[in-house]
Amino acid sequence: MAINDSAVTRSTRYSGNYRLIIAGKDDEYAIYYCRLERAVGPDGAPQFVMWRETQAKERRTFRGAFFVNDERLYLVGGRRESVDLRMFIFRINVGEDDVDYLGLSLFVSSNENITAAKCVLEKMRKTSETSRITPKIRRLITAEELKEISSSAFNFLATDDSAMVVEPQFD
């Protein structure tokens, strides 16, 4: 089943380079780099690729599709080399020029625990036409380091003031 053309058109508005920051345990945060592409896959959905490099310089890459409705941006994908599914759900304001999206990540961890964590997807901004987008961060970072990198991500992820509330809604 292919995604309809209007959904693809709306999704491509969000294409570009992003930094994904996921809250971990013990005030540690993982940083991934993410590219939402204009290209569509065999199912007609726009594609994304996400990666991070470990301290051992191992690259962990996730691929999948993304789509948008009036209130949410969804990324669904996994790693090719393992049975792994990841889903990211971000709040959006369609028609506004937001560059930071607050959300929730759902995935199965390496020790097979189902994990949910707050996350932030930030549009990458170049400081000049010739500069690199961002330095590579190859380790988990602390709350203090996160505050220096992105105060808006810190405010959402490191405090309980912005706690996500999940309330089941039944149709």
Labels describing this entry:
single chain, 171 residues, mainly beta, Lipocalin, eight-stranded antiparallel β-barrel, 3 helices, 9 strands, 13% helix, 43% strand, globular
Question: What report would you give on this structure?
Answer:
The chain is mainly beta and 171 residues long. The protein has one domain: Quinohemoprotein amine dehydrogenase alpha subunit, domain 2 (Lipocalin), CATH 2.40.128. Helices cover 13% and strands 43% of the residues. It contains 3 helices and 9 strands, in the order αβββββββββαα. The chain has an 8-stranded antiparallel barrel with strand order 1-2-3-4-5-6-7-8. The longest helix has 8 residues, at 5-12. It is globular, with a radius of gyration of 16 Å.
Distance between the termini: 24 Å
Low-confidence stretches: 128-133
The chain-level structural class is mainly beta
Q: Give the overall pLDDT as a whole number.
A: 80
CATH architecture: Beta Barrel
Q: Please give the order of strands in the largest beta sheet.
A: 1-2-3-4-5-6-7-8
**Count of the domains:** 1
Query: What's the total number of strands?
Result: 9
CATH topology-level name: Lipocalin
**CATH superfamily, called what?**
Quinohemoprotein amine dehydrogenase alpha subunit, domain 2
- Helix-strand string: HEEEEEEEEEHH
General form: globular
Radius of gyration: 16 Å
Number of helical segments with 4 or more residues: 3
